[in-house]
Amino acid sequence: MPIATVNPASGETLKTFDALGAEEIEQRLATAHAAFRQYRLTGFDERARLLNRAADLLEQDAPDIARTMTTEMGKPVAAARAEALKCAKSMRWYAERAPELLADEHPSDADVKDSGASRAHVRYRPLGVVLAVMPWNFPLWQVVRFAAPALMAGNVGLLKHASNVPQTALYLEDLFSRAGFPTGCFQTLLVGSGAIEDILRDPRVAAATLTGSEPAGRAVAAVAGDEVKHTVLELGGSDPYIVMPSADIERAARTAVTARVQNNGQSCIAAKRFIVHEDVYDAFAARFTAGMRDLTVGDPLDESTDVGPLATEQGRADLEELVEDALRRGATALCGGQRPAEVEGGWFYAPTVLADITAAMRIHHEETFGPVATLYRVSDLDEAVALANDTPFGLSSNVWTEDAAEVDRFERDLEAGGVFFNGMTASHPALPFGGVKRSGYGRELSGHGIREFCNITTVWHSA
Question: Does domain 4-235+439-462 have CATH number 3.40.605.10?
Answer without folding.
Answer: yes
